[in-house]
Write a structure and sequence with these properties.
With 79 residues, the protein is of the alpha+beta class. It is built from three helices and four strands. 22% of the residues lie in helices and 13% in strands.
Length: 79
């Protein structure tokens, strides 16, 4: 018997630029600084960070958040 779902899982996906794994576009996304398409783990890193981005914090990937401030992507550019 087929699984009963109220809401279907997304059929749209792409590959993560960091790890090469599958990206569900509803969970993963694009970093505001480096503009890479990333999976949930490489973009948010934790459920707390995902919650903060849902509440309005800029979407910045794990790698850009841990990068030293002296690199070119040191500021978030609105636009």
């Amino acid at each position: 018997m087929a699984k009963f779902e109220f809401f279907r899982s997304s059929q749209i996906s792409t590959d993560c630029d960091q790890c090469g794994g599958r990206v569900d576009l509803l969970k993963g996304g694009v970093c505001s600084l480096c503009r890479r398409i990333l999976c949930y783990r490489d973009l948010h890193g934790s459920w707390l960070r995902r919650l903060l981005t849902d509440l309005g914090t800029p979407v910045v990937c794990v790698q850009c958040r841990t990068r030293p401030a002296s690199t070119p992507h040191d500021r978030l550019i609105d636009g």
